[in-house]
Queue: 3 jobs
Job 1
Amino acid sequence: MALKIKSSFRDLCPKLSEDELAQLEENILTDGMVINPIVVYDGFIVDGHNRYEIAQKHNIPYEVTRLTFDTDAEAMAWIYHHQKGRRNWTKKQAAYARGKIYAEEKQTHGGERKSGSSYQSDNLKSTTKTETTKTGTKTTSTAKSPSKTAERIAKEEGVGQATVLRNATFAEDVDKLAAPIKQSVLNESLKATNAEVKTLAQKPKTEQQKIVKAAKDSGKSIKEILGTPPLKQKTGREISPAKLADSIILKYYSPLAKGIGKLAEMNGGKGPAYKAARSAMNEVARQIKLMRSGNQ
């Protein structure tokens, strides 16, 4: 019977590089079997996605180990801690995993946890039994893993609770990115702040790809490519040309006139340079007044 794939399990861990995947396939073909069993929960693979894909591709036998959890969140916590010591994780990959686990737990239990519980895989208790199938040996294991909260995850991970909550927001944003961009953000080949990821996530995926390409081609940050968004009026009202003109005169012309006068005094008097500057200022003021009245 074919095993099932759940994206939330598969995508929780860093993906193997092309070279690593090729090496794994070569090892399995050389051995003629999948040495490490495929681990499943409720029919879904929780460990061994790549091994399973290679086994299916080459019709190679494999063993199956079955784990039982109370929730998907518990399964995800097991995946995270089981894989954490086996692969090199970037900071963003770890943040993404923490965020996904927290979000799943919150959805399942509303963020509540069982008293005295821990979500570390080394605290899981399990019993196993083995049987033979046409694909090899099948080991059934029942594992008990407790609920998690931001507080518990933070304590186990040695981070602040606020960090876990930020991780959840980050994970939600990352999941809105086009697949190649998501991978680049998580493996940190694309340098993007959480704020830049959020901005990208709010745009259509075709536009995301154009922005990222422009950033890579120019060597600029995503923020630089996007530019600074225009400021909005706090009141939400449009300002009239007359009010804007008066504001310019009040805010810039008067202080500048005083500054030029002070500078002239410091230089010993109001000479030709001062007169030329004032003349230029007067012309600017005249043009602003014309624009104020609607004359261009």
Note: Residues 111-135, 140-148 have pLDDT under 50 and may be disordered.
Job 2
Amino acid sequence: MKLKIVVLMIVILLIPGTLLIPTIVTAAVDTAQVVIAKETRFVDQVTATGTIESLEEAQLYLDTTVVPDQVYVEVGDYVTEGQVIADVDVNKSKAVIAQNPFNSLGETEIEIPDELSETLSVFGALSGLSEEELIQAFSAAQGGSKNAQITQTLEIPTQLTAPMSGVIGDLTLQTGMPTQAGTAAVTIVDNSKLALRAEVGESQIQEVSHGDRCYITGSGFSGKHYTGTVTRIFPTAKKSSTNLNTESTVEILIEIDQPDQYLMAGFTAKAQIVTEIRENVLAVPYEAIGQDEDGKEYIFLYENGKAVQRYIETGEEMQSGVEVTAGLGLGDVVIQNNSSIRKNGQYVRIV
């Protein structure tokens, strides 16, 4: 009887320990997270930065100095082709030209008689004066009547008109102030036709092709984005310096689809150029891949409660992982963190 009691007490004491065995065993097994191998879309991109410019612009150049009597536009105004942008004070313009004809006439040539040309050349060599200085001295010697003759024959416009429709991008005209001959009085741009002139590093330019689609962003139009197409790849490279090094870059032109009022010529912008798209690509996270002593890449699959090693071959790197070209099947259960597995075939618990 006493023996039965002792045995019963031993059994009672062992029952709790027996119930704890599965918990103890489970706690001893390493845990791991898994991902299911599935097909994804591979998109390869090249980043380029540059400046937005107008594809169409026109400048109004003046052959002579003019004095605007009234300027009707300012930078940022929209004008139509032929619209009057300024009235010209013809009398004041002629007076300015008469006082200083050499700076007031753009490409007007001073005629030097043939018999004096050689003499001036010799004098220039002896005196050290430039050809321009000699011509000015010769013209000044002709007297004020010559200047008056020049101003009388000049055709000075009474009005200045816009050479095309668009937005005033630059304006040098000021009421009452003489213009400078041979320089642009006004620049007009068409903001409905914009492009991004960007630079691509020499190591990536071979990936870019005509017709590649682009995604364009910039701080000047924060919160908005635009699309575009690579329409030109320039044939020469140039040196481009950064804080770290110097490399050769190649310019490309990206025509922007449907620019609006938020986009302006002169803005800096960044383009993500889509150079390749492939569907049905198998990929795994970067941390799922390991390398053995021979440099061969492998992953661990979760099979029947164990971590089973599988050698793989990899392809392109993507933002979210690495393409697997061999050794992985659709639906395979891949252990996400390779370093969490100590050895091939060990038991693991999925969490």
Note: The longest helix spans residues 2-28.
Job 3
Amino acid sequence: MKFKAVISLFLFLLLLTACGGGTAAPESETLETKPAATVVTETETATAEPEDEPAVLLDVPYISQEKFLPNGCEAVSASMVLNYWGIRMKPLDFVNDYLACETLDTEFPGGLIIGPDPYEMYAGDPTNEDDGLGCYSPVIAEALGYVVGGELGVYDTTGTELASLTEYIDEGIPVIVWATIDMERVTDYYEVLYYDRYGSYYYPENEHCLVLVGYSENRYFFADPYESRGIVSYPKSDCEAAFADLGKQSVVVRPQQ
């Protein structure tokens, strides 16, 4: 009887182990993906309200500045607009063939930077993560002027309010704009001494250039080359404040009238 009892106990424990004990199956591997150009990413975690759906959203070919042009948001934004108009352009070709650039001199004590006027040429090297500041609308407008021709023209629309630039969107025309990363206010600057040593200027540390491609009742939508973000949207008030911090600079490529 004891032998039968032991066998019965062994069978019971074996059955219990088979039902509840085994090793857990491994979790499936999660693959990291980058946003596609058609993905709209909001900068808030809350679900978008119906009125935040874009009233107009232009299909601008998306290009990321990640890895190859870490400080070249201006050139990448310009290249996106050129490709939108059917002019095939790689951002590196735009930099090498059309964008006026001049290096920065950072070998001075105390972190002093000496460089060119960003209204006249790109200050630094846009391919270098540690040696590039940027440039402003006249530089990009001039570079675009070397590329486009025929029925297209380049227009520096600096001074136009961001809300008024949506009229271009309504006409199917994307707009290159200067603002900041994440549409945060400008708080810190690089002081740069002009090469002629007569005076200096302050360049916003978080300056950013991107392409306005759409809008809704409460938000603006951009093709943002930074960190492969794809199409992003921000509250209108944040965009307008950041846009104003950068002097309301903008450039459009459109059919000539």
Note: Residues 1-50 have pLDDT under 50 and may be disordered.
